[in-house]
Amino acid sequence: MKKTCDYLADIVPSIEELYGKEKCTEIMNDAQLRYNELLEENKDDSKKVRMHTYDRIYPAVAMFDALTNNGVEREEAADLLVEYYHQRSEPVGEMIRKIMKVPGLYKIIPSLFTKLTNVMFGEDSGFKARYYPTGKNQMKVDMVKCPYTDLCKKYGCPEIVRGFCEADDICYGHMHEKLIWGRTKTLGKGGDCCDFDIRIKE
C-alpha cells in the first residue's frame, strides 16, 4: 500500500512542534488510514489521473481530514498545508531559475509549456482547457476544469486548493527576467478559469 507520508514526510516536524509528538503520531496514522480509503474509493483512476491524485491530491485531502478530525481548526489546518506547499515549491523554483541561466533556454519555454500541458494536464488527466492561437513566443490557455479544485471540493476541503495554485506561482513566477508568468486568476481561488499566459517579453 502506498504511503501518504511519501508526500507528507517533511510536514511531520511542523506538526510535532505545533501539537506534540503523541498527537502528531495520531494525526499521521489517521492520515494514512484516510489515504487508504481514498485509494480504495478511487481505485479505477487511470494512470494519468493518478499522477495528480495518488501523489498530490489524495495525500493533501487525507492530511486535512486527519488534522481537523484531531481538533485542529479548519483555517489552521488549511494554512498549515498551504505553507507546506510553499516550502516544497521553493527549492523547485530555485532549481528552475538556475537551469534557466543557460543562454537562450528561456526562448523555448512557451512552446515547452504548451506541450507539457497537453501531455500532463489534458482531458485524460481530468483537466479541460481552452487554447488560444499564438506564436512560438507565447502560450495562452484557459484551464476551465481542474481535478485539484474538483476533488478538494468533493471531499470538503476547497480551502486547500489555493496552496496548489500558489505553488505554481512560486515555481514558475520568476523563471527568467525575459519571461512573463501572466496568470491572473485560478479556479482554486474562485476564478472562472486559470488563465495561463506565458510569454517572452518584447
Write a structural description:
- There is one protein chain.
- The protein is α+β, with helices and mostly antiparallel strands and about 200 residues long.
- The chain has one domain.
- About 55% of the residues lie in helices and about 10% in strands.
- Strands 1-2-4-3 form a four-stranded antiparallel β-sheet.
- The longest helix has 26 residues, at about 75-100.
- The chain starts with a helix and ends with a strand.
- The model has no long low-confidence stretch (mean pLDDT about 95).
Oligomer state equals single chain
The total beta strand count reads 4
Strand-pairing-aware structural class: alpha+beta
Runs in which pLDDT lies below 50 for 5 or more consecutive residues are none
- Rounded mean pLDDT is 93
For the largest beta sheet, what order do the strands appear in spatially? 1-2-4-3
Rg over CA atoms, rounded to whole Å, is: 18 Å
Helix percent band: 55-70%
Question: Between the first and last Cα atoms, what is the distance in angstroms?
Answer: 50 Å
Strand content: 5-15%
Shape: globular
Main beta sheet: 4 strands, antiparallel
Number of helices: 8
**How many domains?**
1
Helix-strand sequence: HHHHHHEEHHEE
